[in-house]
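User: Can you predict the 3D structure for this chain?
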Amino acid sequence: MNRIRVESDGPLARITLARPEKRNALDHEMVHELLQAFTSCAQHTETHAVLLTADGVDFCSGADLTALAGMLDATPEEHYADAEALGRVFIAMREMPKPVIAAVRGRALAGGAGLATAADVVIAHEEAHFGYPEVLVGFVPAMVMTMLRRSVGEKRAYDLVASGRRISAAEALDMGLVTRVIGGDDFDAAAERIAREMAESSASAQGLIKTLFYQLDGLDFRDGVLAGARTNVAARSTPDFRAGVLRFAKH
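Assistant: Here is the predicted structure, written as C-alpha cells:
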C-alpha cells in the first residue's frame, strides 16, 4: 500500500503523507516513496511548486519506532543506509529548483519536524506543535540540525534538540521555524492559496531565487553580492523577465 499520494493540479503538485493510522510515521518504504516523489516533481517541467500535506490529525510523528526496533541488531552499514535515505529526502527538497511549501496540522515531531524544517515555506495551523524529541529516547536529530540551526540560530536550535521540548505554532513563528500561522477552518484553503500563488508566478524566477538563496550559505558578503549580480543577469535573460518588463512598461 502506498504511504504517500502525489497529485498534480496545473503547476502545483501535492505530496500527501498518507499513513494516518500511524500518525504518518516514517518507515523505510515511506521515505523511499518521498524521495521518488520529490525527484519526480523536480524533473517534471510542468510542476512549478510542491505542497507537502498530510492525512489525519498529525502532520508526521517522526520515525516509525517499531521499524527502528526491528533494526536494533543491524550492522553499522545498514543503519547508515537507513539514516542516509531520509537525509537524501531533505537534500532533494533543498536542491530542487522549485519552492516546497509544508502545510502542518497537529504534531510535527522528530523526522516529521525535519520534513517541515527542510521545506522552503512552512504554513502552520494555530494549534500545530513542533518538536525534536529524539533525545528523550536516547536518539539524536542529527541530520535535521544542519537545517534547524540555519533557521532559528545556534542557541535556540541547541535548546530544541537538547531538551526535546515541544513548541507551539506561535513560538515556532517567533523563532523563525515557520513562515505563517493560520487559524480556524480556513487553514487548508489558505495553504493551498499560498502554494498556488507561488506555483503560478514565474518559474524561472522561483528557480533562480531558490538556487541563490541556499548558495549564500557558503559565501562571504562580497561573494554573495557578486553571486547576486550574476543571478540578476541570468534573470534578465529569461522570457518571463522580458514579458514582465514589457507588460509593465506599457502602463
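The chain has a mean pLDDT of 95. The chain is about 50% helix and 15% strand.
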